[in-house]
Amino acid sequence: MSTRQRLSVTTRVLVGIFAIAVVLIAIGTPLVSSRAWASAPTPGPARREPSTVAYAITGSVSLYASPTVKRPFAILHNPTAIGGPLVFLVSSTALEPSWVKVYVPLRPNGSQAWVHGNTVQLYSDDYLVWIQTTLHRLTVFAGLSTVLTTSVGIGRSVLPTPDGTYYIVELLKQPDPYGAYGPYAFGLSAFSNVLYSFGGGPGEIGLHGTDDPSSVGANVSHGCLRVSNATITELAGLLPLGTPVIITY
């Protein structure tokens, strides 16, 4: 079995291609949101055990449809295009150490692949983000504890936020903390089912702040998820790359 180490969120750094440094900093008491460190189980997704995250340790990672095929269907590079680490959420370690099955940041949503075990290092992650779009609610769990619950803005009816199992792919510190995306933006492994390109990108779903506080808790976006700037700052210091994000209706 591979060595599993606990992620240290206070030392995670993601660097953008335009010299935008992303520093994951520990934040104190939130300005907006509710906290409850509960000792008893609380309602939420069925999977509440620590997840496993795979960090690439080679310059590229080949993705295979199964362990028996000869050729990969895709190759992803490490570091990524924005200069950050290539990470995956692990869905199965049944064939470890030879193979690991992972979720991948590719269309269609929820895509999975097999990767060689010697191309990744496995880590444990206690955090899970659950987004209930009908309730406009975002909840962060750490094991059985509810760490944070807050309102979230979602996509408009014609540009809905897609449901499914995803994970945090990247974190970008924004050049203008008072701009449209607030101080930070997480890139998720999810993609819009309507827009195949947006803002020069492939229609990737993000979780970010906003310059319009009234949009938090409403159906206003192109599919991305909006929280208050205080909340996204807190999440940037709390959640490591690879953290699972479950979106339900």
Task: Count helical runs.
Answer: 1
Q: How many angstroms does the end-to-end distance come to?
A: 37 Å
Q: How large, in whole angstroms, is the Cα Rg?
A: 17 Å
The major sheet is characterized as: 8 strands, mixed
CATH topology of the largest domain: L,D-transpeptidase catalytic domain-like
CATH homologous superfamily designation of the largest domain: L,D-transpeptidase catalytic domain-like
Task: Please estimate the helix content.
Answer: under 10%
Oligomer: single chain
Q: Average pLDDT across residues? A: 86
- Overall CATH architecture of the largest domain: Beta Barrel
Number of structurally distinct domains: 2
Can you tell me about this structure?
There is one protein chain. With 249 residues, the protein is mainly beta. It has 2 domains: 154 residues, L,D-transpeptidase catalytic domain-like (Beta Barrel); 74 residues, SH3 type barrels (Roll), CATH 2.30.30.40. Helices cover 4% and strands 39% of the residues. The strands form 5 sheets. It has an 8-stranded mixed β-sheet with strand order 13-12-11-20-15-16-17-19, with helices on one face. β11 and β12 form a beta hairpin. The chain is globular. The N terminus is likely disordered.
